[in-house]
Amino acid sequence: MGLLNSGDEVIVFEPFFDQYIPNIELCGGKVVYVPINPPKELDQRNTKGEEWTIDFEQFENAITSKTKAVIINTPHNPIGKVFTREELTTLGNICVKHNVVIISDEVYEHLFFTDSFTRIATLSPEIGQLTLTVGSAGKSFAATGWRIGWVLSLNAELLSYAAKAHTRICFASPSPLQEACANSINDALKIDYFEKMRQEYVTKFKIFTSIFDKLGLPYTAPEGTYFVLVDFSKVKIPEDYPYPKEILDKGKDFRISHWLINELGVVAIPPTEFYIKEHEKAAENLLRFAVCKDDAYLEKAVERLGLLKDYL
């Protein structure tokens, strides 16, 4: 709202967090999609986030005189990819060349399992001057219901646009919750909370993905976030299984997730929701699971998912 005029374009990498799209279109902006290309053997073997790639020539070719901004999400929901320093430097330099604002969605900034996490705004003064960085206490402290987050920038003018939009949208966030989150950041740094949290999630992923390793269902090993994408191509659901009419015109993953809930009692998100209709084939055999649960709960889910052996 603070950045866009009617007709301005924003480049969004697909798959994308669904809230990006209405936020752009509400302002009269136009969304331009550039794919994050999946590994070719996604349905055959376990893959890594680094194997999901952007064609930066395609990205640069998508920039026009109307391009105002690009949104980059790292660590990435739903892939679990952490963009590398090299990838972010390439993207940032292209944006500097064309004077395109970078909106860096880093709400999972403390949930990375790579050796390091690169913030695009730190790569050069020029890139920093074009970058708005978004963070979230909801993700960092598992307090999603509080709706507390922040936007950072080295560019005061750029930041003022975000501040003006925030004022018009919600005026202000509740002061007690802001105080709690601000103090939590300081306290977390003192007790090494974020590193301990990362190690806990490493354990959670190990518990949860063990069943997919056992069954031979390929997944993208998460480099960040608390999500994992699993390929269900090998799962054979009875052809005459009844589905509600509401999902018959949606992606195949909606039917898989419906079946999984009703037959095994395990809930997953259909990732075609992160794609536009024309591109949903790329994710029709995938499901996104979240491991932000206690370990005993995950172990119970693993036990239920073990029943998939009868459908392979």
UniProtKB/TrEMBL annotation:
<feature type="domain" description="Aminotransferase class I/classII large">
    <location>
        <begin position="3"/>
        <end position="305"/>
    </location>
</feature>
<dbReference type="InterPro" id="IPR015421">
    <property type="entry name" value="PyrdxlP-dep_Trfase_major"/>
</dbReference>
<protein>
    <submittedName>
        <fullName>Bna3p</fullName>
    </submittedName>
</protein>
<dbReference type="InterPro" id="IPR015424">
    <property type="entry name" value="PyrdxlP-dep_Trfase"/>
</dbReference>
<dbReference type="GO" id="GO:0016212">
    <property type="term" value="F:kynurenine-oxoglutarate transaminase activity"/>
</dbReference>
<dbReference type="GO" id="GO:0005739">
    <property type="term" value="C:mitochondrion"/>
</dbReference>
<dbReference type="InterPro" id="IPR004838">
    <property type="entry name" value="NHTrfase_class1_PyrdxlP-BS"/>
</dbReference>
<keyword id="KW-0808">Transferase</keyword>
<dbReference type="Pfam" id="PF00155">
    <property type="entry name" value="Aminotran_1_2"/>
</dbReference>
<dbReference type="InterPro" id="IPR051326">
    <property type="entry name" value="Kynurenine-oxoglutarate_AT"/>
</dbReference>
<dbReference type="InterPro" id="IPR015422">
    <property type="entry name" value="PyrdxlP-dep_Trfase_small"/>
</dbReference>
<keyword id="KW-0032">Aminotransferase</keyword>
<dbReference type="InterPro" id="IPR004839">
    <property type="entry name" value="Aminotransferase_I/II_large"/>
</dbReference>
<keyword id="KW-0663">Pyridoxal phosphate</keyword>
<comment type="similarity">
    <text>Belongs to the class-I pyridoxal-phosphate-dependent aminotransferase family.</text>
</comment>
<dbReference type="GO" id="GO:0030170">
    <property type="term" value="F:pyridoxal phosphate binding"/>
</dbReference>
